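Propose amino acids for all 170 sites.
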């Protein structure tokens, strides 16, 4: 056989074998928590029950958005509203497929470029009553650090620099 024909054959076969290996590996991911159990864990949360009652007219629902696989060990479950023929996510929850531990997406944490900033549900419950939590922030050494729009620490204040200037002028 000519060398270019052999190379062509390998170029056609190897991607197929790689795809098969990935499918087999995804099926081998150990899951102690099933999809149904993950949805049940999230629907039992007081925060979710309150959202379902509060948004009743907007057709609230939970939607499974991601299953665990070889690169991700979490179920991602979105809480949102589904009126007007579309689903709009208000909160993303994550359930560890092995332990059942629940995490929540901290949408105000802009410390990295990652799409989701998962924090344990208990930490979210502890911090969400703090007004600083509802501004751009990050966590350092277990402490909440408020960030300005450029990602620099503002030393715990939650006021904009413009608001601080107004206060200084009075």
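Proposal:
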């Amino acid at each position: 056989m000519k060398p270019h024909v052999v190379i062509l054959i390998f170029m056609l076969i190897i991607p197929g074998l790689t795809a098969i290996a990935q499918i087999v590996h995804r099926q081998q991911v150990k899951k102690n928590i099933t999809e149904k159990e993950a949805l049940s864990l999230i629907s039992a949360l007081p925060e979710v029950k309150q959202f379902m009652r509060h948004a009743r007219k907007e057709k609230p629902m939970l939607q499974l958005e991601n299953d665990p696989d070889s690169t991700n060990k979490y179920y991602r479950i979105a809480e949102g509203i589904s009126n007007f023929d579309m689903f709009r996510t208000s909160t993303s929850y994550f359930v560890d497929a092995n332990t059942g531990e629940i995490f929540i997406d901290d949408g105000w944490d802009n410390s990295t470029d990652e799409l989701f900033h998962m924090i344990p549900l208990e930490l979210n419950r502890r911090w969400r009553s703090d007004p600083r939590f509802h501004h751009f922030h990050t966590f350092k050494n277990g402490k909440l650090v408020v960030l300005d729009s450029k990602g620099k620490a503002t030393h715990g204040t939650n006021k904009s620099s413009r608001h601080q200037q107004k206060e200084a002028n009075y």
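Residues 24-28, 157-170 have pLDDT under 50 and may be disordered. The first helix runs from residue 3 to 27.
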